[in-house]
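Appendix B. One record, verbatim.
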Amino acid sequence: MRSSNHRNVFLDDLCINGSNNSSTEAAFRKIQKQWTAFLIWRVEDMTLTALPKEQYGVFNSEEAYVIFSAAQIGQPAGVETVPREVKNEKLEYHVHFWLGADTTPNKSGVAAFKTVELDSILNGVVTQHRESQDYESARFKSYFKNGIRILKYQSNDTTISFPRLFRVRGKTCPVLTEMGGISWSLFNSSYILILQTNKYVFFWVGRSSNASERVRALEIAKELNSSVAGSELVIINDGYEKTLADDHKKEFNKVMPLDKRVILPDTSHQENLANTSYIRLYKCSDNDGKYRVTEIRDGPLKQEDLDLESVFIVDQGTNGIWIWVGSKAPEKEKTVALRNARGFVKKKKYPSYTKVTRVVADYEPYEFKMLFPYWNDNTKTKTKAKPTILIHKFDAQAMEDRPALAAETQLIDNGSGRVTVWRIDSPRATEITYDRHGYFFSGDCYIVLYTYNTKKENHLLYYWLGTHATQEDLDCTIRKLSEIEAELERIGLQARIIQGYEPAHFLQIFRGKMTIFQGKGSMFDANGKNTKLPSQYLIKVYGTTKYESKAEQVPMKCSYLNSNYCFVLVRGKNSYIWCGQYSNGDHREMAKAFVKKEFEIVLEGKEKQEFFDLLGGKSNYDTTLMKNEFEPKQVRLFCYSNINGTFLMEEIHQFAQKNLIPEDIMLLDANEALYIWIGNLSSKEDQKLSLKLAIDYLQMDPSGRDMNIPIMHVRQSEEPPTFTGFFPTWNKKFWKHYKTFSRQIRDIESSHNGHDQHINNGIGHSKVEGEFDQYDKYPLEVLLAPNENLPARVDPLKKELHLTHDDFLSVFEMNYKEFQELPKWKQQEIKKKVKLF
């Protein structure tokens, strides 16, 4: 029930700016500004009461709470935070006020006001978050590594009465929510529910529930079971309730009458699919007592639009509202910022649970900075420093032993492994001879297989797509990739590379001599095997090291020169290296790799007329010094859910290897590349859709990401150091003793002496039965309706597939596997008899 919360949804805003004549809240007096801390208080009357640490993570849906986090920038925070003094370093402060679904307006208001009071104590630099039950931010959930418990009981009544019904959601931070009642109407095929009685804990698994959620939910079910002496854990699968052992079924039927069972497919997610790419910037002003909000721009946003003398709202729709407060903004506007942001939510008619966060200039959290394509932070080093170690001396084993360095440089080794290159000219894939390695054409696609050794043989598979390649060549490339994968046992990395976005290791393979020519290779070589090069061309040289260096052909015109680069002009037997005024010695050394022994150095400003004549005459070109000052963005990890082909992303703050779940596919955003991690237990369907996942992610990024960055697939237990180095620690044996959900269920059920009849209760059955369970299930009376009244996802010719196992057994007097083994004519005859034809 949310009635009280919805009727007075904005009352907490009215309290934010209330006056307080009393002394500072007693709960805040022990807070020390330069100490790390993690504290939680519950609102009681008009004050705060500290929770004991053992209750951290347990919330009551009728209450309101204030949560305070102080940590070093970029360091983990939460329940495990150890208080300690931090000298000569700025801390990151976050205050969240969390509102239970059934909290009162008074409690909501006090929580909001106390948040402002705490911010005032800390000199107004706190990031303030308004959190609503079931819609908590990723940062909030990251504080509770073992999950969150949201219980429902009357205020001041801590006694527990049975039965109780819980829902469990969340992959990385499981949230156990006590339901308001006990009814089949609260069940859903995508849910995991726990029904606790004084004798049993019934663990009910919806057929469409997420595999990794099941693993975390089972841990919670075990905890609940162990909390009551003599309790027994019983597993129930959606649609198999009647296969329970008699004593279990009798107890379950008392609370959940099986003759009233109605469970429909989940459609609620359709209401929650928000367009994450939506973003708008508004400027707030309060002139002459009139408050105005003026739209400045839509995305992508620019940091320079934020004026230190003003307050701005960044609108992400139902994904959240940010209000940014400039350090020189009027005090009144600073004070009312959060209230005005809530007013903005109301005016836009966004849901009341929409997250609202207030940030302060120079204290922005990284989630806010990620909304901008580039962010300059004067307090940090702007340019990415080059590694201090000579990378070219490193072999593969050395890089594997130092994965952090591999991740920073995106180098797996020094490029000394075995290389095989195929050029795709549909329908053929022609292997390129060694002397032509490194020459690419924009009209072609290429596959590069790289093999290197550490303590075993490792394979990397790159596929390079020219910007002018045909769809036929792209399709042929994918087919050839599948053939190569089938021939090799395991591939540690498969990377999609778009022309112009080659990663460091790919360039290192070709020793900094990769050259991209325009057109198709077949234009210069009729047989397509020994691709010849153009007889005259102008190429632009990039980079100052072998893992940065490449050259790309540009038109032979003076207007394509650029003072920041070196260019190589080849005209028959004559070669020239033109050096822009802002290029340095390292640039020039790399340029020498693209010419023969005889060449001429041409310095900008000292060219002879003959040089310009080769380029069609002298003309203007770009002479502006190129600057590259920006703060490197934080690497981020996401898990995702695939609901009917729609990807829903959930970020994991302060990620670690344990967050990589074998049943899932994860996405690591390393800014200049995306890594898709394929869990060994992930579904084949999700694996096939994984590239679409990455592309969708880039399209929906509100900062306006480049769609052409490399997308790399890595498989569980075959991860290269360029991936593992992004994790604080990495243990190759981490998953050695991992127990799948099915294995854990078998262990539980086999421990029930005398109850073997319900083992494999919908788990571990045949492939045919497994396919049957994948279909949406409906009550028999729904499927007996006329075809025009059937749900949209029901095939009128296959109604029987939409029955639950129990209903199928009752109607057909046999299970689905037995039915499938019958001749087709017999199946049709039976379907007519039971009116499901």
